[in-house]
Amino acid sequence: MKKAVALLSSCLAAFAVPACGGGGSPAKDAATGLARANVARAPTSSISTASLDAAVTANNAFALDLYSRLRADSATSNLWTSPVSASLALTMTYAGAAGQTATEMASALHLGAPAGQAIFDGQNALSQAIESRGAAALAAVQQLNQEANQPAPSASDYDLHVVNSVWGEKTETWAAPFLSTLATSYGAGVYLRDFIGQPEPARLAINAWVSSETKDKINDLLPPMSIDSSTRMVLVNAIHLKLPWATPFDASATAPGTFTRADGTTVSPSFMHQTAEVAYVDDGQAQIAWLALSNRQVSVVIALPHAGVDLAAYEASLAPGSAAIAPPQSSALVALSLPKATFTSKTFSLKAALMAMGMVQAFDAGTADFSGMAPRGLSLSDVLQKAMIAMQEIGVEAAAATAVNVVATSGQVNPPTPVPMIVNRPYVVAIVDTTGAVLFLGHIVDPTDPGSP
Question: Residues with Cβ < 8 Å from 205, sequence gap 6 or more?
Answer without folding.
Answer: 167, 191, 193
